[in-house]
């Protein structure tokens, strides 16, 4: 009887809590196994946000020959190319005149006190660089990606390779520096500033007969060398606000020299730096979700982006020369009366280096590293500004060959998939086992031929089958209660003798439930286990 109640509970998918503990556990386990596939199917069919990669093309800056000097091959403050202002930003081939603020602001924090430096791209793209830009990545936010196949998708990230320069600046103090600032004219009234002359030569200055100044005007002149010079203004009848940087590209070298007055910029005085423009290949990664650009050097390149490098040598062509000149114009163009914006930029970054190292701002290595990293940032942004101008100004001008070139791009896009691999694998395995079990039973039962039609879940069928078995079952239960001095009240939880063995047999061709002798052998025919043969007669 207990076994009959177990089968009935399993067949009806419900737990009869007054079953024996073992049987209740079996029912719970069966229900769990029955509901598990549905849960796995739900997990396997749930849409999940994921990512996919597709190929695309992005136009990046190129530097074709510019014989007219209208574009990237300009000289000095020549503004033939003009300034372009549009919804994407302000673009010019003279960034020292147009973009001084963003360039110096980025250089003032070239070294981060905490973590990696972030600085905004000098346009309206709202993108920022993580670390250095190396002058590449101008296309991000300015050019659209053309996807292979023309799909309309939501791009999350894209990467591409671009050639550029890994600019490296080395600085040191040269006490015999021939670049200096000299008093020229005192103000006559409070309304007029004092005039100072920044002049002299650098170690790589051009050698030529004669000089532009007399020894009294520029005492540091070396006979036979052409001097560089420009005026610096100051107030307060002192030179404490005077700062002057000069860059010279000559003899395959790109050098800078700094001269200051006796005030707050003194730690920068007589510092000389050399910049190396090393052709490299870079991987540019643009994360459109976080609006961040990451540039990773991939190694030196045998190709220089500057076509004039074939004449002058790698890293010493017209483009690096122009950038060195623009750095000088940053100093010339903003010689303030009360302070120097470029001098303040170097001081700010030196302080950042000192805080990052917990060192003194007067430490020589701190000063030199602060100047070199700030100057690298300026050169990076100057290169980036010229690259952006190639995209926005020169790209459609007939006076120059193609100013952009296509670059293969790997685009990461938003996608959806059904389920995860783990759930799909589990449900596939479970389904395989179910189908395999089905096939085994199909073969074992010979396509289920001869199985009885009796349904012990149907109450009418059970009543008829039990009535045909006589009163053996009822007598057994009554006897069990009588021995305990009780009677069965109909409560299935208090049915003494419920473990009476039953067998399903054919009696006169009809299904019959009979109570069996407890002394009978406990084989597979008991507990409602009906065996059959080809004649459908039960043994």
Please provide a written account of the structure.
This protein has 539 residues and is an alpha+beta fold. The chain has three domains: 1-46 and 419-449, no CATH class; 52-175 and 270-415, no CATH class; 452-539, no CATH class. Helix content is 30%, strand content 26%. The chain has eleven helices and 17 strands. It has helices at residues 2-11, 21-45, 95-98, 100-108, 309-312, 318-333, 341-357, 364-394, 421-444, 459-468, 472-484, and strands spanning 47-61, 83-86, 89-92, 118-120, 128-130, 146-147, 155-173, 179-185, 194-200, 228-234, 243-250, 253-260, 271-287, 292-300, 404-418, 502-507, 510-515. The strands form four sheets. Strands 1, 4, 5, 6, 7, 11, 12, 13, 14 and 15 form a ten-stranded mixed β-sheet that branches. The chain has a three-stranded antiparallel β-sheet with strand order 8-9-10, with no helix packed on it. The chain has a two-stranded antiparallel ribbon with strand order 2-3. Strand 8 and strand 9 (194-200) form a beta hairpin. Helix 4 packs parallel to helix 7 (341-357) and helix 6 crosses helix 8 (364-394). Keywords: Membrane, Transmembrane, Transmembrane helix. Residues 526-539 have a biased composition (Basic and acidic residues). Residues 512-539 are annotated as: Disordered. The chain crosses the membrane at residues 21-44, 423-443.
């Amino acid at each position: 009887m207990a076994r009959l109640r177990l089968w009935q509970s399993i067949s009806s998918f419900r737990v009869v809590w007054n079953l024996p503990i073992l049987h209740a556990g079996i029912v719970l386990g069966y229900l769990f196994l029955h509901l598990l596939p549905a849960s796995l199917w739900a997990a396997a069919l749930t849409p999940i946000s994921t990512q996919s990669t597709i190929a695309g093309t992005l136009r990046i800056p190129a530097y074709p020959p510019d014989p007219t000097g209208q574009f990237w091959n300009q000289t000095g403050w020549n503004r033939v190319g003009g300034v372009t202002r549009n919804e994407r930003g302000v673009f010019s081939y003279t960034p020292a005149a147009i973009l001084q603020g963003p360039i110096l602001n980025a250089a003032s924090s070239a070294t981060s006190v905490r973590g990696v430096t972030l600085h905004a791209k000098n346009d309206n793209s709202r993108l920022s660089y993580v670390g250095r830009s190396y002058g590449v990545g101008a296309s991000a936010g300015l050019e659209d990606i053309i996807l292979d196949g023309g799909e309309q998708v939501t791009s999350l990230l894209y990467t591409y390779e671009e050639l550029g320069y890994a600019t490296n600046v080395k600085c040191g103090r040269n006490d015999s520096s021939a670049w200096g600032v000299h008093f020229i004219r005192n103000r006559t009234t409070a309304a007029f500033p004092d005039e100072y002359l920044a002049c002299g030569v650098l170690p790589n200055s051009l050698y030529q007969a004669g000089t532009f100044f007399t020894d009294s005007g520029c005492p540091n002149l070396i006979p036979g060398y052409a001097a560089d010079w420009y005026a610096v203004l100051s107030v307060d009848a002192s030179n404490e606000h005077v700062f002057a940087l000069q860059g010279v590209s000559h003899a395959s070298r790109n050098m800078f020299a700094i001269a200051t007055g006796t005030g707050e910029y003194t730690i920068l005085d007589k510092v000389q730096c050399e910049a190396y423009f090393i052709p490299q290949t870079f991987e540019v990664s643009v994360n459109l979700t976080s609006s961040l650009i990451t540039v990773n050097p991939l190694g030196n390149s045998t190709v220089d982006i500057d076509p004039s490098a074939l004449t002058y040598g790698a890293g010493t062509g017209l483009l690096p020369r122009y950038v060195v000149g623009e750095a000088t114009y940053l100093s010339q163009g903003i010689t303030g009366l009360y302070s120097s914006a470029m001098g303040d930029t170097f001081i700010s970054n030196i302080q950042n280096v000192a805080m990052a190292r917990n060192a003194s701002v007067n430490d020589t290595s701190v000063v030199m590293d602060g100047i070199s990293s700030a100057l690298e940032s300026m050169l990076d942004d100057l290169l980036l500004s010229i690259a952006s101008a190639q995209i926005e100004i020169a790209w459609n001008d007939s006076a120059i060959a193609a100013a952009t070139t296509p670059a293969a791009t790997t685009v990461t896009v938003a996608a959806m998939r059904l389920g995860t691999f783990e759930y799909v694998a589990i449900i596939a395995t479970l389904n395989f086992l179910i189908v395999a079990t089905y096939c085994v039973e199909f073969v074992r039962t010979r396509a289920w031929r001869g199985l009885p039609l009796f349904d012990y879940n149907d109450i009418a069928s059970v009543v008829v089958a039990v009535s045909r078995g006589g009163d053996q079952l009822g007598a057994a239960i009554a006897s069990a209660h009588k021995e305990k001095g009780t009677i069965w009240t109909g409560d299935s939880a208090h049915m003494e003798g419920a473990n009476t063995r039953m067998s399903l047999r054919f009696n006169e061709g009809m299904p019959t439930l009979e109570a069996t002798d407890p002394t009978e052998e406990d084989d597979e025919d008991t507990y409602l286990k009906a065996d059959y043969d080809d004649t459908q007669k039960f043994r």
